[in-house]
Amino acid sequence: MSSKYEVVIGLEVHVQLTTNTKIFCGCSTAFGGEPNAHTCPVCLGLPGALPVLNKKAVEFAIRTGLATHCSIAPRSVFARKNYFYPDLPKGYQISQFELPVCEHGHLDIETEAGGAKRIGITRIHMEEDAGKLVHGDTADTAGSSFVDLNRACTPLLEVVSEPDMRSSDEAIAYLKKLHQIVVYLGVCDGNMEQGSFRCDANVSIRPWGQKEFGTRAELKNINSFRFIKQAIDYEVERQAEILEEGGRVVQETRLFDTTTGMTRSMRGKEEAHDYRYFPDPDLVPLVISEQWIDQVRQGLPELPEAKIERYVSEYGIPRYDAEVLSAERPVADYYDACVRLHGNAKACSNWVMGEVQRRLNEEGIGIDQCPVTPELLAGMLGRIDDNTISGKIAKTVFEEMWKSGDTADAIIEKKGLKQVTDTGAIEQIIDEILAANPGQVEEYRGGKEKVFGFFVGQVMKASKGKANPAAVNELLKKKLQG
């Protein structure tokens, strides 16, 4: 893109809430199922059926608002957003317009190019999802489309940012931060493939120094970070080419084609008045007390930013370790449990980030399925501390714990893995090794210090890895220098 244009990006993120039932009825929100199995007169939009607000969905909205530094409205109103589409049986969507539940928040992000930056959040409002169109893909169904209303009335939060982002990198940093927070809170499962977390991006460009925004295009329903970045970058280039050629960017809604990496026009962009919003007469205003807000605030988990600072200041581990360990709440919970049980935060972080994560990746499972519990890992680390086993032997013990679920003590006893700390026994092995390798002894004493590693290896081999490494090094140096 020509360097004379500044990019302006605002994001609208739809967060599907993890309630068991829908926002205005008692139907299940479970993913999948036979088409139209999770429906009732309310989500089918049948005449006379009245919506009833799901209290848990409101609690999740408050929780998200507090975690993103929003003010929670004491009074908010549901509105009807009127438009026609086959998967919207009522002919309108219940949403919020003038009086949303949360407003005026922010998220702090950081990118390599731009450093730290605060992105404003205009509003977070509650709404219901629409259904889904399934297009025929067989000889019998080609040219036909089918409506599945299982998803209709599923509870959503729409998180609307300020147009504060100036690159696709900033947009992705914001999205990843928001994604991490809603998953940490437990309000969303974050599954982008199933549409639980999806994004519309409003993209425009303007000459540097111009205060007025350019004409924006809205990129709809993109469900992966990689595709969102690609779509924004393509759209920026497309708009710049139009302006460079003397053309005019048209305000419209565009779709991103993942196979071509290009956006294409879908329809003209609607404005608020096109939807003819008005308060829903079937739903009373939502009133949220300070007492309820305080109750939700007290139940918030420690969020990633606070966790990172605690790990660095209280545990004394490097910031990099803290960021990795706090990235996912189950991993952080596992690590915290290990530290509580063992005490050495750095040793715990080394093992959780090292052997534990390696085996999880190999098995393709999450830490909630890890067969080595924090109690087992802490027990093994204790045996390293008291010199029962060495760090090298510990890896063998860990593998056995992973397979059997036995304690470190049981495995050490059963496999005979106890470390040799008897200096007399180690000294005897060293004497035998030195006697068998007089040439290497002369090389070392002649200044070739790299040979020292050879002797260490031979001693460890002769002891089947059980000799205490610190004792081996100390005794070897004395013998070789004597």
Query: Which descriptor suits the 3D outline?
Result: elongated
What is the domain tally? 3
Overall helicity: 40-55%
Beta content: 15-25%
Strand order, biggest sheet?
2-6-7-10-1-11-12-13-14
Q: What structural class do you assign from the helix and strand content?
A: alpha+beta
Number of DSSP-assigned strands: 16
**How confident is the prediction overall: mean pLDDT?**
91
Radius of gyration, rounded? 30 Å
Q: How far apart lie the N and C ends?
A: 71 Å
Q: List the uncertain runs.
A: none
Largest sheet: 9 strands, mixed
Count of helical segments? 15
EC number: 6.3.5.-
Keywords: ATP-binding, Ligase, Nucleotide-binding, Protein biosynthesis
Subunit structure: Heterotrimer of A, B and C subunits.
Domain Asn/Gln amidotransferase: 333-480
